[in-house]
Amino acid sequence: MKLEKLATQKILNSYPLLLDLSKASPIKNVGVEVGPGWYPLVYETLGLLNDLALRYQSGPHVNQIKMESGALEVLSSNSNPDLEQTLIEIISRYLSGEICEVCGATGVRQHLSFGYHTRCERHSYLRNDVEYNIYKYKVFENFINSDRQGLKTDGFAYVHVYKSPYYKNRGCVHIYEFPEHLLSLKESMEYQLHSICHDDVNDLIANEIIHSVNNESKAVIFAGDGSRFAKKSLNIK
Ligand SMILES: [Zn+2]
Q: Residue 222 carries which DSSP code?
């Protein structure tokens, strides 16, 4: 069997509860619609989403995995994803902008003559020629022989900002720092994140805290409660 097919089957066979493998589903019909360099990222992302599906005995039902404008898109049928699923999808999309879709090395999202792609320097101008195929098989072979290693989440932070339930004009900033690797979501994500809470601070202090998290982290995902306090605090230049 061709390595490409084996690599796709590894993904499809690993997560039967998570994936929509019905006849009309794109993933069943065309497989994983990304370059070989992203297969490990797809595998780790789906692994975590699968943990969620197992924990809740429902949840995301993924029906398509594709590259859209140089970024990884994992499409599922549930329209109301929970926080853990949303964070995983945001982080995966971010990481896909740093991984060469051909070989899996460090890459940059760039606009090439054939659209947006994330590529390393070496594969910037590579289309579907002989060298692409050589890399493809090497990368697929490595992927087939590897186990789950977790999603590389070092430097990511999630920040939740909301108005204080107790004091007027004050609010809370909760920072959740991700570990080096997020290995599993069999248990809640909360236990694996390092949390720092700043309760009942004014918006100037909140803004300072948020600035410093933003400067120290690789990427920060912000969520506010829509309050005036959150809007003022999240005013990041
Ligand atoms: Zn490359």
A: E
How many angstroms separate the CA atoms of 72 and 102, rounded? 14
Domain boundary among 130, 148, 166: 148
- Both 162 and 104 in a single domain? no
Task: Find the 219 Cα to ligand 1 centroid distance in Å.
Answer: 23
Section 118-147 average pLDDT: 83
> Ligand 1 centre and the CA of 203: distance in Å?
44
User: Which domain, by its residues, includes 141?
Assistant: 3-148
Q: How far is the CA of 93 from the centre of ligand 1 (A)?
A: 18
Give the pTM. Answer: 0.92
d(CA 31, CA 92): 19
Handedness of CA 76, 81, 86, 88 (dihedral sign): negative
Span 178-184, average pLDDT = 96
- CA 4 to chain CA centroid, Å, is 23
Rounded distance from Cα 73 to ligand 1 centre (Å)? 20
Distance 80 CA to ligand 1 centre (A): 35
